[in-house]
Amino acid sequence: MRCHYCQREATYEAEQSGVVVGLCGEHFKERVEELAESDELASLRDRIDVESSE
Fold this sequence. Notes:
By secondary structure, this protein is α+β, with helices and mostly antiparallel strands. It is built from 2 helices and 2 strands. It holds the Pfam family DUF6757.
């Protein structure tokens, strides 16, 4: 499988509703970083009351 963004060999694959998307290591890291900074994740943290272990 190839990366959805650059056509390099996919290192990771994600599936949802029967659709599979491949990501190379670089694009996987970029997507995870985007998610970590997203308002959606902050909202989810608030909803499930995640406490830091720091």
